[in-house]
UniProtKB/TrEMBL annotation:
Family according to the record: Belongs to the binding-protein-dependent transport system permease family.
GO CC terms of this entry: plasma membrane
Subcellular location, record wording: Cell membrane
Transmembrane segments: 12-32, 78-98, 105-129, 141-164, 185-210, 246-264
Domain (ABC transmembrane type-1): residue spans on this chain: 73-264
Domain of life, source organism: Bacteria
Cross-referenced PROSITE patterns: ABC_TM1 (PS50928)
Record keywords: Cell membrane, Membrane, Transmembrane, Transmembrane helix, Transport
Cross-referenced Pfam families: BPD_transp_1
Protein name in UniProt: Carbohydrate ABC transporter permease
Membrane topology: Multi-pass membrane protein
UniProt cross-references to InterPro entries, sorted A to Z: BP-dep_ABC_trans_perm (IPR050901), MetI-like (IPR000515), MetI-like_sf (IPR035906)
GO biological process: transmembrane transport
Amino acid sequence: MTATAAQRRRGWLSAGGVLITIAYLLPVYWMLATSLKDSSDIFATPPDLFPSPITLTSYTETVVNHAGIGRGLLNSTVIAVGTTVVTLAVAVPAAYALARLRVRFVALLMLLFLVVQMIPAVNLALPMFVIFSRADLVNSYVGLILANCSLAIPLAITILRPYFLSVPGEVIEAAKIDGCTTWSAFLRVALPVSVPGLITVAVISFLGAWGEFVFGLALASDEGMQPITVVLAGLTNSFGTRWNDLMAVSVVVALPIIVVFVFLQRYIVGGLTAGATKS
């Protein structure tokens, strides 16, 4: 391939990448633009590509002064942080045990973890509602966190196990010879090497719980316990939808996701790719 042909190919690839990026960012821009429009300008024909005049009424009236939105954001924060903490506390030692200890049927267990991830949340919601009702966990943070962990923990173990497998066994044995116990060798040797994987798991667990809708709808009938995703769905009703208010809340809900990916993108990508080098 000549240099000119190679440059032309790179140019086409770059152009294709730009078009794909625009296609992905256009809905995000339209959401932001709609949130800054007045209700009378939303259905203008032809549609206004840029909000004029810009108004923050939807943010002040719906996001700031609506008590349900603030409560929903607080609930989602508690659920997402709790899910992340519990997932790491369970998945990290479990993944290390499956990687280092002589456990029978490890391959079968990993297959089961993969299968669990393919089960839709809606199929788990009804059995969980029955079980949690008997345990008095409906309309509670504990119930919602446990429900989210049922999907987050298998994925976390699947991601973390290759990291612990990549740590040479000789290094672990050398640490034990130097006086470390199995637990201290795990904390001082294996865990620091797996920091990118831990960040990846923490981010995926947090974002999964932050955007979860089915469990919040099925296990939180009390409006005071509902996460922001359920509150957001409640802004649409049979009497009409105030799209600028709905988009304003959507922008606020999307902000944590955007911030996490902007600041932790390299850890997420590196964690997913590095952990896949050994299985």
